[in-house]
Amino acid sequence: MALMPVADALAAVLDGAKASATEMVALPAAHRRVLAQDLTALRTQPPQPMSAMDGYAVRAADAAAVPAQLRVIGEIAAGRPAELALGEGQALRIFTGGVIPDGADAVVIQENTSRDGDIVTIREPAQPGRHIRPAGVDFRTGEVLLQAGTRLSDRDLALAAGMNHPSLPVHRRPRVAMLATGDELVMPGTDPLPGQIVYSNGYALRALAEAEGAEVIDLGIAADTIEATRAAIRRAVDAGVDLLITTGGASAGDHDLVKGSLEAEGTSIAFWKIAMRPGKPMMHGKLGPMRVIGLPGNPVSSYVCAFLFMVPLIRALSGMREVHHQRRPARLGRAVSANDHREDYLRATLSLDDTGSLIATTVDKQDSSLLARLSAAQALLIRPPLAPAAEAGAPCLILKLPR
Known about the structure:
By secondary structure, this protein is an alpha/beta fold. The protein has 4 domains: about 5-20 and about 175-320, 3-Layer(aba) Sandwich (Molybdenum Cofactor Biosythetic Enzyme, Chain A); about 20-45 and about 140-170, Molybdopterin biosynthesis moea protein, domain 2 (Alpha-Beta Complex), CATH 3.90.105; about 50-135, Molybdopterin biosynthesis moea protein, domain 3 (Molybdopterin biosynthesis moeA protein, domain 3, Beta Complex), CATH 2.170.190.11; about 330-400, MoeA, C-terminal, domain IV (Beta-clip). It is built from 7 helices and 26 strands. It has helices at about 5-15, 155-160, 200-210, 225-240, 260-265, 300-320, 370-375; strands spanning about 20-25, 40, 50, 55-60, 70-75, 90-95, 105-110, 115, 120, 130-135, 145, 165-170, 175-180, 185, 195-200, 215-220, 245, 270, 275, 285, 290-295, 330, 345-350, 360, 380-385, 395-400. A 6-stranded mixed β-sheet has the order 7-4-6-5-9-8, with no helix packed on it. It has a 6-stranded mixed β-sheet with strand order 16-13-17-21-20-18, with helices on both faces. A hairpin with a 5-residue loop joins strand 23 (about 345-350) and strand 24 (about 360). Helix 1 crosses helix 6, helix 3 runs parallel beside helix 6 (about 300-320) and helix 4 crosses helix 5 (about 260-265). The model has no long low-confidence stretch (mean pLDDT about 95).
């Protein structure tokens, strides 16, 4: 059976993926959530012309020729507008954020003045509009400033607050269940017996999913039996998760039971085995409304497949506008050999050359079990199927890994 190309597999994983329901959350809880609706400003900012500096509000015509002496008739602080209008030959002491009074059209900063009682001497010519923030210079009522599908950053929260929104409409976080399989797996902190392996995959996958905004349920490690695997799958269904991620048991050996267990529970398998390295035995299917991604057990294969397929799917379920990883151009830091029919994702480190160009250098060993090399990698270097050998300095494409 021909292996499915990576692009076709990703299209199948994302096919029909829809954003979850909308809920309102308080502004402090909205960080990293995905906005479900366009957000419009509920106010104009600033609502009136305001001073950008500490100084004196003046009529520019009165201080066009310097030195000019003006009579100070009052003071304006932020939040305390003046009730006075400025007349000829007059000035008002004003502080940053103070509302520009009627009659004034400039602010002279205090460093360019001197004061004696109620007389201020202006030592720099005033210019109309200088040091004044016009009303609405930031935004105006009704403007769409944050679009649906935006994952809200810390700066976005500040903007939403300034727009006068105490709560925001966001998509519910996707719920993801993680299930490991394998009699050989033991938890970190134990003393493994001969043939046992310390379980590591789930920690990276959980962190990767949570960084994308998912809520993660840990289903633990299922023994290598059909009964135990099916029972764990049913727990995911009962929990109402949007996505079940399994690790291990995805190959074709006698103890690889995940595919059979999923099918026994009614899962429709969309594909099993794809034309990529690492990660050939990955699978995808649906069990009712729950999506399933079956990842290989080798740590590097598991992580690379999760990065390439799980992350875009979580983004789609979160309602994000852009779900795909961005491919970036770089140059090879060392020669690479010709590729076969599978698309390669080589672990690589990144650096800059003397011209500022990005250099991707493959790590020295690419075995799919090597966690130390995966941890050291900063990117995946993409080698298309049947790509010819390439020398150092040749152009290439990479996907940056999260740090």
